[in-house]
């Protein structure tokens, strides 16, 4: 979601990123060919992916050709970026039931990510790393870059798909994105965005990346030229070091050594899920409520967490209806109710007194085929280093 947050006394010049809903049908196949949902299906739908994977594995040991178990396993393997495993299980589901349209759609989605991995992003970072200082850490991390010879200021935001430019900067740089799509913004409001553009070269520090897919999307802050999102970071072992104000990009081949060092240092390491086409998830807990699946969307300036109505009740939080705030995003203004969560925990990392919001108007998480408890964002990560390890599919928090 993209939003400005306007508190009663001041404007937080903040960007949060659009979630593209075009192609949701093929991303999240609805309907299975087998009879009523199993216990494994129920676990998947509640967002307990680890337990669901074990349940599907037990079913496949006794019924290796079960289309439902193969399809559920393929879906989870896609989320953990095991593309070969996902493709094999999705094909097995389709072979067992050739009329299984959900399996066919999932195969298409797996192929789309496989093709996307090979599409563009010619990169000079084969060895070593780059360490680029933030221009600013608040309201959101901002870096300097050069796009096709034009100086740019870019927000780092995992709520964004890849590289989206403001309309003004795209016009200046001669970038055209001809394909219209519908983006979902704060409060579930929608606005037209554009995809299908391409950037010849992006230079960040000593890193040069070429042939990058690009889009055009609303950027409410005129001082910002664009947004760097998940599909860009996916190409690297990427660290957003909020505490020291820097972006670190390493080659994915550094994953094993990084994970060993993080474990030795006692860092928080939790499973990370990448849901088509760019949505990141991890499990977390708010106050004494149950663990749930949260969207890891770093683009909520002055926001540490937002919760669904059910999650508010589970955490025993009553938002402040007397002091409403205004979210101003690409889809227009949306009212929200502020609150403070006593504690938000991701693995072994707990942050106290986390500022949050509740948006009653619309629920962007309804498009997912599993329960989403809410979103964890900027203020939760503000005093740590946050690493996205897409090779090990781990989220690492270093204090």
Structure description:
The chain has helices at residues 24-27, 39-45, 49-62, 67-79, 83-96, 101-118, 167-173, 230-233, 255-264, 309-314, 378-381; strands at 4-6, 11-12, 19-20, 122-123, 130-133, 142-147, 150-156, 163-165, 179-184, 190-204, 207-216, 226-228, 237-241, 246-250, 268-271, 273-275, 279-286, 292-296, 305-307, 325-329, 332-346, 349-358, 374-376, 385-389, 394-398. The protein is α+β, with helices and mostly antiparallel strands and 399 residues long. It folds into 3 domains: 4-21 and 252-398, Cathepsin D, subunit A, domain 1; 24-30 and 37-118, Tetratricopeptide repeat domain (Serine Threonine Protein Phosphatase 5, Tetratricopeptide repeat, Alpha Horseshoe); 122-250, Cathepsin D, subunit A, domain 1 (Beta Barrel), CATH 2.40.70.10. It has a 6-stranded mixed β-barrel with strand order 17-18-23-19-22-21. The chain has a 6-stranded mixed barrel with strand order 6-7-12-8-11-10. α4 (67-79) runs antiparallel to α5. The radius of gyration is 20 Å and the shape is globular. 49% of the residues are buried. Mean pLDDT is 87; it is low at 1-26 and 30-35.
Secondary structure layout:
Elements: E1 4-6, E2 11-12, E3 19-20, H1 24-27, H2 39-45, H3 49-62, H4 67-79, H5 83-96, H6 101-118, E4 122-123, E5 130-133, E6 142-147, E7 150-156, E8 163-165, H7 167-173, E9 179-184, E10 190-204, E11 207-216, E12 226-228, H8 230-233, E13 237-241, E14 246-250, H9 255-264, E15 268-271, E16 273-275, E17 279-286, E18 292-296, E19 305-307, H10 309-314, E20 325-329, E21 332-346, E22 349-358, E23 374-376, H11 378-381, E24 385-389, E25 394-398
């Amino acid at each position: 979601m993209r939003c400005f947050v306007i508190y009663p006394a001041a404007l937080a010049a903040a960007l949060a990123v659009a979630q593209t809903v075009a192609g949701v049908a093929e991303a999240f196949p609805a309907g299975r060919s087998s009879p009523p949902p199993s216990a494994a299906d129920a676990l998947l739908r509640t967002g307990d992916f680890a337990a669901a994977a074990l349940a599907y594995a037990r079913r496949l040991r006794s019924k290796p050709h079960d289309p439902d178990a193969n399809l559920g396993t393929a879906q989870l393997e896609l989320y953990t970026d095991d593309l070969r495993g996902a493709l094999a299980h999705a094909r097995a589901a389709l072979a067992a039931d050739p009329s299984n349209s959900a399996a066919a759609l999932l195969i298409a989605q797996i192929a789309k990510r496989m093709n996307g991995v090979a599409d563009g992003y010619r990169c000079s970072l084969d060895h070593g790393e780059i360490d680029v200082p933030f221009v600013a850490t608040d309201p959101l991390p901002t870096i300097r870059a050069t796009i096709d010879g034009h100086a740019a200021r870019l927000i780092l935001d995992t709520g964004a798909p890849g590289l989206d430019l403001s309309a003004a900067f795209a016009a200046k740089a001669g970038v055209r994105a001809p394909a219209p799509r519908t983006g979902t913004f704060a409060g579930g409001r929608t606005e037209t965005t554009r995809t299908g553009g391409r950037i010849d070269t992006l230079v960040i520090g000593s890193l040069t990346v070429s042939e990058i897919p690009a889009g055009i999307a609303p950027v409410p802050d005129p001082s910002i030229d664009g947004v760097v999102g998940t599909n860009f970071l996916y190409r690297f072992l990427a660290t957003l070091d909020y505490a020291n104000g820097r972006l670190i990009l390493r080659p994915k081949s550094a994953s094993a050594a990084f994970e060993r060092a993080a474990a030795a240092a006692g860092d928080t390491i939790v499973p990370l899920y990448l849901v088509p086409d760019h949505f990141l998830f991890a499990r977390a807990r708010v106050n004494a409520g149950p663990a749930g699946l949260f969207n890891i969307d770093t683009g909520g300036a002055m926001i540490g967490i937002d919760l669904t109505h059910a999650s508010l009740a589970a955490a025993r939080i009553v938002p402040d209806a007397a002091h409403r705030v205004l979210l101003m995003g690409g889809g227009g203004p949306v009212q929200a109710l502020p609150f403070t969560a006593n504690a938000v925990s991701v693995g072994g990392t707990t942050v106290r007194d986390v500022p949050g919001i509740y948006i009653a108007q619309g629920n962007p998480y309804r498009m997912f085929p599993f329960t989403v408890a809410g979103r964890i964002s900027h203020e939760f990560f503000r005093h740590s280093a946050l690493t996205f390890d897409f090779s090990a599919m781990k989220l690492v928090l270093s204090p």
